[in-house]
């Protein structure tokens, strides 16, 4: 057996041995009584009895072990023309003083703190300061709508809210205080204190809020608090099917062990390496791979306040990689497609030296083969698609830079990561499907450490939504298949499987065909209601910059491509060109919202949408092809 096969086999057959050994890489105040406690299924607990502090493992231990002068974080903000670098010693001082002022405001172990901030150092510092004293942080993406923020305030009931005066979206300054004021007026719960980090781009008049800089300057440094391994580290809200967001809860012990392991085994990152997750701290990628995992590993993390394009150009990713000697970049496929759309020939790359760049990792949505090939041919490094979810906290399926690296099959997230017993189940009965057969992707329990342990104050929903549909399994909500070689293909959410005259087809396979067209930068296919066939697919095309061919010719081409590659059974006969697609701030295409518009149904404005105005453009586009009324 190769290294991966050995690790995977042990992780499934003897998870206590496997994860117990991984836990030795983490510093504990007291070792655990048992590695895995399954006495209250499905509420399994890892490292029960262990005593730990995540902030200590992320910062203090590296200072004590002689890495105090190494950079821990590099803040790179093209939107403010700012670069700041913090050593582990400097970060320890700022975090411990911030923890000190939180304690001075009455925040104790178990209290909740909402962090409503843009991508500035204080966002990362706030998270670690909470972890230092055992407060449970809940990061809400800076600039989120007041109504959505109010819902989270009422659910988390924070004692304190940490915020900033503004965020910056390309060239637009978004003031946060009006949004926060409105949210607090809407919410039933009122926090005791609000702390404001003033930014020069839009300083605000304080009205009862406290000034961050003044508090930090006057605060005493505070030591780490000893916590139980199963004490909550954070709450992270993810969209719920009922409209009420679900508060995913992560523990301290299992989270630290799993993330430290992934940095070495999945990403190939060791202490001293520079790692960049081009995401936002408001999302799970930001929690896991901007803040916690790189610092737990003694690496240098990049905190980037900007976009892949437009701040100011499509070469910013390559600039950051060269300027800071980035070894690994982790971003979303949609970010690479944005760069590809603006710079299809990769001209910007010619300005930069990427000789120290090792790997591009993609996640957040499925990496279509066309995007994979474009990035691989341009960058001349491995491009690795991997698949995970807010609930899981780290990758379910991946290829590996620290274990065996397998040949890449475009369209596949490669193999199940050690710890994840992935199965394909028949959606109508739950029996396991043979290789190559499509079905629901599920994970045999117990889940590995680092995954969610419950939903905040809603254990019933945790069981009902994730653990009861297929007893003994975690229901991922995604569909796909596993091939003869054990490669996992995630074809999209289960509701992206459409039923065309009794035939179940994946819209993901149709998107693959569309994405191969040389003029298509990005696309989406979704099913709309049809009186004759139940559902039929329609396509939305975003074209590359500089495309000169007519829209009619391109649409004719892609209809033919789907017919050839998926078959006439797909009934793919209508598509429309749009300037852009509606997306979440993390880059996921809002297919469900587009589907409601096309079906002429009422829809709820998604709380995570990046630009609500794009929905008006989609409404006009669907009318062109006879839908939306």
In DSSP terms (H or I, runs of 4 or more residues), the helix count works out at: 18
Order of strands in the sheet with most strands: 5-4-17-16-18-19-20
Q: Measure the end-to-end span.
A: 58 Å
Secondary-structure-derived class: alpha/beta
CATH top level of the domain at 504-624 is Alpha Beta
Q: What is the tally of beta strands?
A: 32
CATH topology of the domain at 504-624: GMP Synthetase, Chain A, domain 3
* CATH H level, superfamily name of the domain at 504-624: ANL, C-terminal domain
Into which percent range does the helicity of residues fall?
25-40%
Gross morphology: globular
CATH 2nd-level architecture of the domain at 504-624: 2-Layer Sandwich
Biggest beta sheet attributes: 7 strands, mixed
Spatial extent as radius of gyration: 24 Å
Enumerate the spans where pLDDT stays under 50 for 5 or more consecutive residues.
none
Indicate the mean pLDDT.
93
Strand residue percentage: 15-25%
What does this structure look like?
The chain has 629 residues and is of the alpha/beta class. The chain has a domain at 504-624: GMP Synthetase, Chain A, domain 3 (2-Layer Sandwich), CATH 3.30.300. A seven-stranded mixed beta sheet has the order 5-4-17-16-18-19-20, sandwiched between helices. The chain has a five-stranded parallel beta sheet with strand order 7-6-8-11-12, sandwiched between helices. A hairpin with a 3-residue loop joins strand 30 and strand 31 (534-543). Helix 3 (54-67) runs parallel beside helix 10, helix 4 (88-104) packs across helix 5 (121-133) and helix 4 crosses helix 8 (212-218). The chain is globular. The relative contact order is 0.09.
